[in-house]
Fold each of these.
Amino acid sequence: MNHIGRYEICGRLGRGGMSTVYKARSPITERIVALKVLKPRDEIFEDLVGWQKLKELFIEEARTMGAITHDHVAKVIDADLDDDTPFMVLEYFSHSIGDFIGEAYKVEEDTRVISIPRSYMYLCQLLKGLERLHFAGVVHRDIKPYNMMITNDDRVKIIDFGLSRVRGEESLAIPGMQVGSPYYAAPEQMAAPEKADGRADLFSAGVLMYRMLTGKLVELKKGKIKPPSRFNPDLSAAWDQFLATALAPTPADRFASAQEMRLQLEDVFDEWQTDSAATCRWYRPTEQDPKRSEVSPRSKPVRLMYKDIRQELQLDSLFRPQHFHDHQLQIVSPLRLYDPHTGLHWQRQGSGYTLDWHQAHTYVDYLNEQKFQEISTWRLPTTEELLSILRPPTVERDICLDPSFAPSIHWLWSADHCNKKQAWMADIVESYLGRQDLDGTASVCAVSN
């Protein structure tokens, strides 16, 4: 398959029970988009429901999404038919919460523990999106990490409304059909999906928050969860109570609405942030040894294959450094940092916008042409050089230390590639390495010896 409608297919992004999502290129503008195509995985759906009914439901999903404009709900750009097969054109995002936490095909495996401020920010955005959906009478019923995309400017957007119910109408009623994803769906949704209301989405949001804060999935035993503070000592009793309410097995015991849940979350976070900041008066960063020997991370770009990179760079199973460098970045100017341990100069504010990998190289050439900061030897950093600036994800880092780089920077391109279609990047917020397609986007912080 080379084309669907006017769109050139670049690869498959994912496949669900009812549809397949492709990365595609628009004609003329060559913009990268996501193309969702009706394509039932199992023929039984078509046999039970009928192709015409499936088409109607798919088109109704496009109308539902198209009618909602919100910062945290994905936008439908277009919808059309390719012969007799409907498809919709969506915004393309190169990052998701699933990638961010490192959730694997074996969902029950532990994921990255995400910092409390970042987890709070993403859940607040998700709840704002759910506020808008529930106002429109839409119950999503499939809130999970890979249905939460992250935009270039760090906003969460909800995608995939294929299992949603609009204003109480059950469009796809197949006896025994599971609606929602195991581990994330609310108990009542698994038992009777046609009766689940917006509080089922809040339960799923609670599972997602628990996952980000602990790296664990929720275990409900006798209607209770293990307090998240058992796995993350930086969490207070208020966090335990908040998540216990969000994850109550009975809907009536949960928050009544997404807005109520969000407002309570804001109170919990504000209290936690105030208490954490108060400890900074006793916190002292580890003193750096001025006599420490210099380190020389590799400066030449190489190909690092996925199967080799963890051993090559001493990363753990979630692609975080097993040992962090004790870097000592010094502010030379508002636009430049210097690390005396590596002898490297770093662009402090970065590019200010995200670019694909090829554009990142062009941007570096532009810096050199301009002799940015009176330097004409800027280049993309290698993965080893990026690892040298990562800080271990701790409360002290998040609360007590001023960031070395611009706070708006999240992902940074490296000069190292993985294969013909992917290169390596670093998440300098949560301190891990990841790979993404060359036409995906990240920021650039150039480096110079």
Amino acid sequence: MAQLWGGRFTKETDQLVYNFNASITFDRKFYRQDIEGSIAHVKMLGKQGILTGQETEDIIRTLKQIREDVESGKLEITSEYEDIHSFVEANLIERLGDTGKKLHTGRSRNDQVALDMRLYTREELLATDTLLKELLTTILNLMEAHTETIMPGFTHLQKAQPITLAHHLGAYFEMFKRDRLRLHDIYERMNYCPLGSGALAGTTYPLDREYTAELLGFYGPTLNSMDGVSDRDYLLEFLSACATIMMHLSRFSEEIIIWNSNEYQFVEIDDAYSTGSSIMPQKKNPDIAELVRGKTGRVYGALMSLLTTMKGLPLAYNKDMQEDKELSFDAMDTVKGCIALFNGMLATMRFQTENMRRSASRGFTNATDAADYLVNHGVPFRDAHGIVGRIVLYCLEKNIAIEDMSLAELQAISPVFEEDIYDAISMETCVNKRLTVGAPGKAAMEQVISLEKKYLETDWH
């Protein structure tokens, strides 16, 4: 078909070149944003007297019809068109004739695509935030239910000190809460309208850019037309936030995979979120957790791809920037899908609380508290550290926990120990005497849970 820009050219574009240049196969994804932006543009043109009232009415009505026809399947977006902008405008002209040709007055495809991508990214950002809030709600519900579920805390994947499941899950609550804060910050920076920037130098038409921005829900217009058409910082920031979200999901997935192993048996994943083996009938694999972990790489890839694309581009618009779409669309869909599936897996997961407690006990996670007991009875810390090290060796030889030792056995290593040592190193004591803000003690956790509930009751959009 004849191109919207064909007047300058004397011969048809080679088909391979056309296919390489075209973006309709992927930018069709934001037909709604393209039509929404066009409607706002036309309303502004009518308000400014650049279009007549009748022309404005006819174009807006027809644009809405095109949108309805696409959504109903009556009108198909095909590769006959170079891009989504050409598709919309060509169909408008076909239905309205010369009036349809006035749609593009005071506008370039450069500021049009910049607007479409910004509108689409803003919508995806808000959808991602909503899913994160749902995940945070699931985590908080589990935290409330498990303030007394004792488990080992780890460093270097070695059992370190006893904590609660609520405390462990609370760490991920903080991560995903920060992810939401990042999304909010990005929204605040990106919510300005590039429409009216023209190709790069604005336009001679008396556009009301503030009005267009208001119609589209932006805080105002972008303040430099060259930056308006060439800025993709907001998309880089969103992809960076998506990469961080996936990193958090991947860390959580890795722990669930470990917890699900035969050696740990801390969790049982619901059948709906796991699969079996084609050959080994005993297997129950944590597929969703593994896929989330695996898909993190493709989101990282989208970020690195766009950073690389943008790093050498002079002002203003360059065709390289068409590469901002395919991988970004994939990353956005991937992140949303991973959050939703992870949330479902977590909400239906069964925690093996007895196994968790037994693991904390058998892992000498109360060794630090035994050393603290000695310090509180006048033993220098370095000496206490050595005494408890000998106790751990003794327990390993006997295959018992510290609390399983008799008082005589303890006193044989250090006469400082008294009967109250057993209360001092009980798992409940070890956890609940840690009451500083952010610690795993029940009272401290309940305080944090109360704060997190208040946080979830408010929203920024």
